[in-house]
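[audit] Reproducing an earlier prediction to check determinism. Same input, same settings, fresh worker. If the tokens differ from the archived copy the diff job will pick it up downstream; this log only records the rerun itself.
[audit] input (144 residues):
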Amino acid sequence: MGDEMTQDEEAIRRIVAEMTDGFNRHDARAATRMYAPDADFVSVRGEAAAGSMEIEEKLAAIFATRAGGAVLTTLDVKVRFVRPDVALVHVLNELGGLVALNGKKLPAHRELSIRVFVKDDGAWRVAAFHNTMQRPFESAALPG
């Protein structure tokens, strides 16, 4: 069972790398092909998408507008199996090159996502993805 988990963890880590690579090529299909048909997605901005087709469409729209020059760097990946066929994966990324709605380039920031992977018929798929900005208020003065 240990070898199987190692192989499964390696497979999941490869998929995470494929997601990042697809994003950096600004290829919405390549960045979302690993989602289950009924996957749930929540972006760092709280925007939701349901199903792999809608997730791909929304990512393509972002590439066509605000993220055409964006670059994603994966800093850390933690995989935890809750069952042999279900894994919770935390991914820490740094995202740079986004453009605000007013056209100004935004500073790079870190995002922490949780991705739920499910193994069906021997293949790992992303069943859910939820992203959050890490320390978004760090540079802002918080009320005492």
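[audit] rerun output stored. Observation attached for the diff report: The chain is about 30% helix and 40% strand.
[audit] end
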